[in-house]
């Protein structure tokens, strides 16, 4: 869901090329492979679940995403269950041992009510003792201050065209959210394509309180993908919580 900037079918075909070397996938992979049933919320192109099948995962794998363009990429293989929608349009009752959200998808829950609702649905989807694993950027690390200089990627598009992506912060951090735009340009296109997004940066205290309210017990938290401890300057708040 954090990747709605790639909701357009042509842009969705660029997503994996623009996001290589996924450290988050490396982190979540052992949990995915060790769970009999997995729900990937905001699965995007489905590449993490594809990899799980390639690694001989024999259980249930389900990907949920609201972007038809992304799911069109995911559905290139049919041995995974793909669902078009979001946590407000579908509901599962104690069906999964693991729910994951990768790619900072958790940050799309901007309002408190939306966050509470999403966590309640995730709680319902988990079997008793099941785990919810996800990450959100640590607001104290102020990642948005580097976004405009970091995002200058050029990749090959589906027709062989060169596509360049740049990012611009449109509304600075206000203590809660950051708004920004992505611009995709190619000499093969008539005009650039621009998308606009807003993400919430939730701190540890508010995050932990929301999980507890949803009946999810904190099991572990890390500050980066190497499982280093969470500190004030850590780039991530990587969280594993368990349904009571």
Number of domains: 2
Largest sheet: 7 strands, mixed
CATH superfamily of the largest domain: Vaccinia Virus protein VP39
Distance between the termini: 26 Å
Structural class: alpha/beta
Q: Give the mean pLDDT.
A: 92
β-strand amount:
25-35%
Radius of gyration: 18 Å
Encode the helix/strand succession as letters. HHHEHEHEEHEHEEEEHEE
| Number of distinct beta strands | 11
CATH architecture of the largest domain: 3-Layer(aba) Sandwich
Shape: globular
The CATH class of the largest domain is identified as: Alpha Beta
Topology:
Layout: H1 9-12, H2 15-18, H3 23-34, E1 37-41, H4 47-54, E2 60-65, H5 68-74, E3 81-84, E4 96-101, H6 112-125, E5 126-137, H7 147-150, E6 152-156, E7 162-171, E8 177-185, E9 193-200, H8 204-213, E10 216-222, E11 236-243
Parallel strand pairs: 1-2, 1-4, 2-3, 4-5
Antiparallel strand pairs: 5-11, 6-7, 7-8, 8-9, 10-11
Write a concise synopsis of the structure shown.
This protein is of the alpha/beta class and 244 residues long. It has helices spanning 9-12, 15-18, 23-34, 47-54, 68-74, 112-125, 147-150, 204-213; strands at 37-41, 60-65, 81-84, 96-101, 126-137, 152-156, 162-171, 177-185, 193-200, 216-222, 236-243. Strand 4, helix 6 and strand 5 (126-137) form a beta-alpha-beta unit.
Describe what you observe in this structure:
The structure is a single chain. The protein has 244 residues and is of the alpha/beta class. It has two domains: 4-139 and 203-243, Vaccinia Virus protein VP39 (Rossmann fold, 3-Layer(aba) Sandwich); 141-200. Helices cover 26% and strands 33% of the residues. The chain is built from eight helices and eleven strands. It has helices spanning 9-12, 15-18, 23-34, 47-54, 68-74, 112-125, 147-150, 204-213; strands spanning 37-41, 60-65, 81-84, 96-101, 126-137, 152-156, 162-171, 177-185, 193-200, 216-222, 236-243. It has a seven-stranded mixed sheet, with helices on both faces. A four-stranded antiparallel sheet has the order 6-7-8-9. Strand 6 and strand 7 (162-171) form a beta hairpin. The chain is globular. The two termini are 26 Å apart. The mean pLDDT is 92.
């Amino acid at each position: 869901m954090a990747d709605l900037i790639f909701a357009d079918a042509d842009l969705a075909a660029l997503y994996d090329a623009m996001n290589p070397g996924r450290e988050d996938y490396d982190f979540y992979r052992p949990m995915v492979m060790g769970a009999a049933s997995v729900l990937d919320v905001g699965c995007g192109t489905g590449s993490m679940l594809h990899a799980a099948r390639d690694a001989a995962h024999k259980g249930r794998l389900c990907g949920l995403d609201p972007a038809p363009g992304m799911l069109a990429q995911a559905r290139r293989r049919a041995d995974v269950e793909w669902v078009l929608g979001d946590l407000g349009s579908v509901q599962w009752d104690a069906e999964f041992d693991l729910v994951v959200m990768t790619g900072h998808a958790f940050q799309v829950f901007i309002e408190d009510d939306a966050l509470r609702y999403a966590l309640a649905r995730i709680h319902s989807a988990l079997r008793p003792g099941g785990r919810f694993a996800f990450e959100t950027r640590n607001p104290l690390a102020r990642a948005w201050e580097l976004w405009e200089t970091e995002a200058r990627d050029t990749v090959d598009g589906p027709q062989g065209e060169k596509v360049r992506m740049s990012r611009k912060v449109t509304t600075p951090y206000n203590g809660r959210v950051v708004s920004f735009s992505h611009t995709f340009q190619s000499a093969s296109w008539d005009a650039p394509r621009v998308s606009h997004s807003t993400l919430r940066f939730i701190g540890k205290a508010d995050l932990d309180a929301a999980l507890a309210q949803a009946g999810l017990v904190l099991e572990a938290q890390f500050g980066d993908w190497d499982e280093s401890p969470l500190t004030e300057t850590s780039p991530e708040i990587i969280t594993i919580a368990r349904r009571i």
